[in-house]
Structures are given as structure tokens and as C-alpha cells.
Amino acid sequence: MAEEKKRTRRANGESAIYLGKDGRWHARVPMGYKDDGSPYRRHLTRPTRKELVDEVRRLEKQRDEGSARQPGKPWTVAKWLEHWVENIAQPVVSENTYAGYEVAVRVHLVPGIGRHRIDRLEPEHLESLYRRMQSAGSKAGTAHQAHRTARTALGEAVRRGHAAKNAAALAKPPRLEEDEKEVEPYSVDEVQSLLLEVNKRRNSARWMLALALGLRQGETLGLRWSDVDLDNEYLKLRRNRLRPKYEHGCGEAAPCGRKAGYCPARVQVRRETKNTKSRAGRRAVPLPGPLVVMLRSHREAQARERAAAGNLWTESEYVFTKPLGGPLSPNTDYHDWKRLLEDAGVRDGRLHDARHTAGTVLMLLGVPDRVIDQIMGWEPGGAARMRARYLHVTDPMLKEAARKIERAIWGAPENLAVDKDQDNEA
Q1: Among 26, 30, 24, 32, which residue's Cα sits nearest to residue 7?
Q2: What is the Cα–Cα distance from 426 to 422, expressed in whole angstroms?
Q3: Which end of the chain is more exposed for a tag (fewer CB within 10 A), N or C?
């Protein structure tokens, strides 16, 4: 059949295919409407009609599935990531989540892959970035953070029709196992050594909430006295303390020359706390008797501090405060933990290792999984995964398992002795 040479009239919404004066085949494919309401058509050209028809069908399929690029100049990866993090992500995510996204975009993704067009980005571009990051000294966890950020941002680009595929969803991030240090929870002896040192310090109950109940740092520093019921021996976790963020308050006319956090007139631009976002995080936690005693004593000590400070006291209703009131800084709290370990003669560790310790102790005591999940604040759907991550099999647990196997297979030790004597007599 001779190839069609004239433009034919087609129904509305149907692609037009015609042979141009340049000898090539052309198509106009309806793709929807522009922002001003006018029709938007994509122009395609190929040397043969068959090639063009194949391309038209592919584009029509993308259009019908909602995955085709929308009208307008294609986004570069840099422009999209900057637009996404400031205008799409920031209004709907927590301050801490936004901070992680912003660093990944500004420090790693924009310098590494920002010049690519978003609709031409390939998984190999991202995998090359991850390798370069690690060669430059970044840990695998940092590359993973960049990967998760890219996957979320590009997923939104696909959903909005700016790209046909999510390259980050296809890319393979580096393995984390090589970068993760095995967590070794503190032993009962180490916890008791910490307890002896804790009793000498201000805010002593703060550390026992971490070691005995596994409360996260933000949960502990966000506690208010209205969340604590000492008569009924429990507390309610409702909010998290956020890491402060500051801007300069000195003004451009007389800049202090310091970082914003050290500016004499610094202004805090991040709220102090946020409500716990998950249902599992909003929970009631039982208080052991000694912790109730510690908290009562702590409340009395805080009342004495308030009276001594007088007008200098900053009222905040927080359970754990600075010496003149006001919420504790997470950074100060971290350094206090490091000093506590050193003074107690206990090996160095992260503050979060106390949470691993508490979970392991609960398991060692035979507390049911569902109760452990409630105390630790784990969602039902992911609780099994979190238990595998946080609950560690200790040497005493392995020895106890060996004794149980011994009793089950070989019998009690005295039975073994009787069997041996009978063999000798025979």
C-alpha cells in the first residue's frame, strides 16, 4: 500500500499523522491542556511512517496512563529537587524530616546529578553518585539518605507527569551491612554502675527513663509534668522535643561574624516540640517503683531550684530543664550522656544504645512481645522488624538456652551421674 501523503482530518483528541514537505513523517499528539486552558499537543517526527506510528502509540499509552511529561520546559534535576524540597515537602513533613531532605538535596544530589534533565535521568547516574560519595568518605548510611530523598522527590515528579520513570526506584543503593556497627547493649552490671553515678547528678531520673524504659531522647526532653501521673505510676508520651534551629538576630548593619547558633542576638526559628505522629508513639508507659521515687525527688529539687532562681527562672512545665528553667537542649543532653559514661567508667556508646539496652532487658525478663511493643512505641505492622533490630541475644541468654537443651536431651545433671555409675558397675 502506498504511504499516505496528505494530512487527513481526524476526530477531536485523535493524533494527526502526515508527510511533511521535508520528506519526513510528522505527528501531532493531543496531550491535554496547558495551564492557561489551551490545548497542548506534542510534535513528533520520524523518517518512516511505521517508526512514527510506533512512537505515537507509545506516547499515547503514556498519556492515558498519566506518566507522560506535561507541557512546558523540561525540569532539570536540580531545579526540580529545589522546588520539591521547599514548596512540596516542607509544608507537609516534620522539621526534622525536612532538615534531612534539605541537606541531602543541597550537599549531595544537586552537585552530583543536578545538571541532568529529569526525564533523562537514569539509575546508573544515581549509582555512580553513591560510589563517588563513598569514595569521598561518606558512609553508606549517608548515601542511603540521599537515595531515599531522591526516590521520594522523583516519585512525586512521576506522579505529576514531569518524568516517565523514577530512576531512584530502579537504582541500587550501597549495602548498609558493611557500614553498620553491631550494637552491644549495656549489661546489667554496666547499668548498675551508671545508676550509682546517676544518683550523684542533677536530672538523674532522665537517664533512668532511657536505660530502664527505652524512651527516645526527644520523648524524654519533651515530657511535661502534666504527662506524668506519679500516684498511678505511669506517664504518657505525646510529643517530641525538636533540635533547635537559629537565625542571626544581629542584623546586616552590625553582623556578629559567628554562626547563627552562637549569635548573641540569635532567634529560634523552629518550634520546641511536635506531637508524636504515630499512634504507637502516643502511648502510656508504666513506671517502676524506684523511678517513681526518683521523679518525686526530682520534682522537689526542681521546686527548690525555681525558688532559688526567683525572677531568673524560665517557666516551661518541662520535667527536665536547665538550671534556670526552660527546656534542655538535645546537644547539651548528648554531651551530658558522654560525661556520665566517662565518670561511671562504662565503655563509650551512643545515647540511643540505652534504648537497645532497655529493649533487651525487657526481653530477658520474659515480658510479652505486645507489652514490649507498647513500652518501646513500635507500630504493629513493623514491630517484628524493630524487635529484630533492638532486642539482642546476650551471653547469659545463650548459656541459659544451652542449659535448657542439656536438661531436655541429656536430663538433669544428677541423672547423668547415676547413668555413669551404672555404666561403671556393669
Answers
A1: 26
A2: 6
A3: N
pLDDT tens digits, residue range 205-257? Answer: 999 999 888 898 989 999 999 999 999 998 998 888 877 777 888 877 778 87
Q: pTM (2 decimals)?
A: 0.64
- Own/partner pairs, 176-181, CB within 8 angstroms, 24+ separation: 176/140, 176/141, 176/144, 178/140, 179/139, 179/140, 179/141, 180/141
Q: Quote the CA–CA distance of 156 and 169 in Å, as a whole number.
A: 12
Q: What does the pLDDT read at residue 6?
A: 47
Are the CB atoms for 375 and 362 separated by under 8 Å?
yes
- Residue 209 near residue 220 (C-beta atoms within 8 A): yes
* Cα distance between residue 16 and residue 31, in whole Å: 12
Distances (CA, A) of 225 to 222, 237, 244, 320: 10, 11, 21, 9
- Mean pLDDT of the 312-336 span: 91
Q: How many other C-beta atoms are found inside a 10 Å radius of the C-beta of residue 152?
A: 20
- The C-alpha R_g of the chain, in whole angstroms, comes to 31
Query: Angle 77-78-81 (CA atoms, 0-180°, nearest 5)?
Result: 80
Are 6 and 18 a contacting pair, CB within 8 Å?
A: yes
What's the CA gap between 158 and 79, in Å, rounded? 15
CB 198 within 8 A of CB 371: no
Q: What b/e readout covers 318-339, taking b as 16+ CB neighbours within 10 angstroms?
A: bbbbbeebebbebeebeebbee
User: Do residues 235 and 284 lie in contact, with contact meaning Cβ atoms separated by under 8 Å?
Assistant: yes
> Could you tell me if 324 and 309 are in contact, meaning their C-beta atoms sit under 8 angstroms apart?
yes
Cell, residue 198: 546517676
